[in-house]
Each structure stands twice: as C-alpha cells, then as structure tokens.
Amino acid sequence: STRIENAWYELEVDPRTGSVARLRDKDLGVDLVDPEAAWGFLAPIYERLANRHQLEARRLDAFERHPLEDVRVEAGPAGPLYESLVVQGTLPGGSEPDGLRIELRLLRAVKRVQVACTIRKLRVKEPEGLYVAFPFRLPEGTIHFDVPGGDVVPGRDQLPGSVSDWNTAQRYVRVVGDAAEVVIASDEIPLWQLGGLNLGRFRDVAAPATAHVYSWVMNNYWVTNFCASQDGEFRWHYDLTSQAPARPHRAARFGWETRVPLLARVFPPSAVDAGSPVASLLAAEFPPALLVVGIRPSTDERAAFVHLQEVDGEPASIDVLRLFVGARAVHRVDALGREPRAVHGPVAFEPHGVQYLRVDV
What we know:
This protein has helices at residues 53-56, 248-259, 320-323, and strands at residues 3-5, 9-13, 20-25, 30-31, 44-49, 63-66, 69-78, 82-90, 100-107, 113-121, 128-135, 142-147, 150-152, 167-168, 173-176, 181-185, 191-194, 212-219, 232-243, 290-297, 303-310, 316-318, 329-333, 341-342, 347-349, 354-360. The chain is mainly β. The strands form 5 sheets. It has a 9-stranded antiparallel sheet, with helices on one face. A 6-stranded antiparallel sheet has the order 6-5-11-18-17-14, with no helix packed on it. The N and C termini lie far apart (57 Å).
C-alpha cells in the first residue's frame, strides 16, 4: 500500500520516487504539498561538490544533486499508537541496498505526522551533503522560524549581512498561509534552508521566494576542526502539524513539546500513609501566550525561580499572584535571581518580553 489515513490526514506516497505525493489536512480542507516543486515532499537529496574551494570563494558552480534510487514502499508498523508507511532506497554515499529508510507515521491520538529517518553512511571524505525537502503549498505562505528571542521572518527581521542562506531554528519552522499554518520541528537537525536550496548564494538579505523549506541534515564542507567524513548509522526525526488560526504560541508549544517531551517517573507504593501527595504550584488556566522557559529551586529549596516569556509578540499583563496558586509571595528578580521586588498585582510583558520571578512556597 502507498496510502494511509487517520482522523486528520490523508497521506499518499509516489511509489516511483518515494516522496509524498499528497498530504491533505481533512479538518482544514487543505492540500499541503506543492506538486510543482522541483524536489518532492520528504525527498532526500544527496549533494556532492567538485571541491570545497568554491565555497571559500563565495560561489557554487561545480556540484551534483541526486534523488533516492531503487525505491521500495511498503506498509509499516500499525497499532494503537499510529499507522505507517516505510520508504527505502539507495543514495550515493550510503551503504547498499536500502541504505536510507524513512518511516511515515500518522498518529491516532493527536494531529501529528511523525517522520523517522535512518541512513547508513559510508566514509566519504569528498565534500558531500544531505537534505530533506519540505515543499509546502500554502497561498501567500510566509516562512517563520524560532530563535531564543522570538519568531523571525527571514529577510525582514534579520540584520543585513547576517547568515541568510541557512538558518538555525531553536524549536520550529512554520509556514503561515491564508487558510492555515504548518509547523515542523526536529530534535536533532537544527539547520534549515528556507525558500530554496540556497547554498552558495551568500546574499546580504534574503526573503524566501517560495514556501519550500529544506532540512540540512549533514555536510562536511568546512575546512575547520571537524571530521572530514561522516560515516555510520544516523537517525533523526521530524514532527509536523497543521492548524488554524496561525498563532506563534501554538507553534512554540508544539516545537517545545516535540524537542522536550514530558517525562514520566513511576514511584513505588509507600508502606506509610503520608496523606494526600497532590499539590500544584501553577493554576490550571495558564495563559497560552506565556511560555515557561525554565524553573529551578533556590539553594535553600524554599523558593522557585521561574523564567517566563511572551511568545505571541503582543503586550500582555499577567496576574502572577493568581497564576502561582500555592505561593506565599512572588518577587520580580533579575536573570541571576537578585534584586527582589515584591509583586502585589499584575506583571506587564512587552512583546516577546521576559520576566524572572522568585516564587516563595
């Protein structure tokens, strides 16, 4: 089979190329894949340069790019958590046969597509790189990516002369269109080329011309203190969702939850009845545009230092006394937990602003 479906998505793979020919959001009635793209959706791209010196000269004129070959598509694992398809094939620089494996998963409980990739790389010292293509089709689509200071639109929010051919996303890349937005995150692969395969352009300012994004998985192009080859088995993942309306806080939470999933710990039963162990520091109705960047205990363990950030890019005012329901007192502090100032009412956040609080418990 080359097609799977769940409550939210229909996904179909082209058996000739192994790329995704169709990914339809059933909720929004939107087809997310651009059928006119030069590289198919989730197509792996192997790149080989004739030499490294061309990049040192700020140009790229001698290179080759290869698609997946000897493609096989088959049904993957299916169970209570997800249904999947498996694409296997051969790339130059990878071991044969089936040196590359991509498992496409449609989760049953949440609106999410997971992509699990594995490649067995040969030891190649010649300059080589690997990409995975995500050519989205969203009318009037604008690409955003996440950095520690907030949500960035390339070509608009970057300083002229800063790196524009590729970008580092902290938590997510999203494409915002008229009818929906698509959010993609990866815990292992931070580098993205936005709007096209941009290597060698070296532009001072670059606004993406399309809604296509390319994950730059690996390369050995730079003559620095890195290993000259990349060999062995590599595994990496992508998580993707689509939603409307587009809001930065929804993308931030998806990216954060993907990169730092909730960890569970099992405690054995106690032989002594210690009473009710249930307690909460935070109110259940947490403001959606407020992100908890970090919480750490004080040295005397009588307080918690909380780092909060506004992620929607809009002014906000939060009543932190109601937010921290179990607190004896709340103080504003600096980033090192110093200079406490008692809080007696709402705390204001500038767009993308941060606040550091000491919560006495």
